[in-house]
Amino acid sequence: MIKVVVTDMDGTLLNEKHEVSEASLEAIQKLYKKDIRFIISTGRHYKGTMSTLEKHNLKCDYIVASGAEVRDQESKVLKQVPMDHSSFEDILDRIKDFPVTARFCSDQYDYAIGSEEEVKESLILEARHFFYDGSQEDIESLPEFKQRLDHVKCISSVEDLRKDNISIYKIFIFSQDESIILEIDKSLSDIEGIASASSFASNLELTHINAQKGIALKEYIEILGYNMDEVMVLGDSMNDYSMLSMDFGATVAMENSMEQIKKVCKYMTKSNEEEGFAYAVEKMLNDELEELRIR
C-alpha cells in the first residue's frame, strides 16, 4: 500500500509553463485526504522551489538541490551535504576551454563568475534554450526570467565563495551542444567525491557524491518510519535516476522521460503536458496502477 508520494518538479509535476496545474493540485489534495505523505524532490534549491510552489500552500517535505538538502513539512533544514570547495578549481580548469556556462548553487542563490552583463547574457541563452524562443527584450520582460536573474550573484572567482564561507550544493553547467555536455561529463568522471546527473540533455549537475535524490529519499523515509515498498516516486530525467532506479514500491516515468529513465521504471504515465502526475496519482488511488506497468 502506497503511503508516500514523491515527485520531481520540472518535467514531472510542473507543466511546460513551469506551473502546477489545477488537476495536479486536486490530485495532491486527494493525497492529503488519504493521509498519504507528499514529498517534493527537485534539482532546484529551496528558494527557487518556493518561488514556484509557495503560492499553493502545499503541505510537503522537500528534498532540494538534487539531494543536497532535506527539509521537513515546516521547512526546517534536517540535513545538508555541500560540495568540497577544494574540487572547484580543478572542475573549472577542465571545462574552461568548452563553450559552456557554469553556476555555483547554494541554498539561497546561484553564483556565476563574470560581470552582470555576462551573467545576464548567459541566462538569456539558457532561457531561449529551455523555455522561450523570443527576442532579448521579450525574454528580459518575463517574470520568470527576472526571478532567475534576481537569484544569481556575480563573483570574480571561486575564491570569493571560499572567503565568504558559502556552502555550495551543486554546480550547474550548461551548453547548447549536447555532445559537449557528454564530453565534459566524461572528463570530470575521475574527480573523487562528486556525482553527476542531468535534468536535460543540455546540462550537467555536479553534487557531492552523497548528495543524490535516491540516497536522500531512502534515508528520509526510513527516518519517518516508512518502508521502501510504501513509496511511489515520479520523475523524468537523469537527476531522478538515483531514486527511480531503486526498488521503491512504484517507480513511475513520465511519457516525456529520457529513455534511460523509462528503462528502469516499473510504470509509465502520461507526459507532464497531459497531466501525467495527476493521472498516475488517480490510478494509484483507484488501485489501477497496474494498468501503467511497463516492466
From TrEMBL:
GO molecular function: magnesium ion binding; phosphatase activity
Top-level taxonomic group: Bacteria
Cellular component per GO, a single term: cytosol
Alphabetized InterPro entries for the sequence: Cof, HAD-like_sf, HAD-SF_hydro_IIB, HAD_sf
PANTHER family: 5-AMINO-6-(5-PHOSPHO-D-RIBITYLAMINO)URACIL PHOSPHATASE YCSE, PHOSPHOSERINE PHOSPHATASE
NCBIfam families named in the record: Cof-subfamily (TIGR00099), HAD-SF-IIB (TIGR01484)
Name listed for the protein in its UniProt record: HAD family phosphatase
The species this protein was found in: Clostridium intestinale
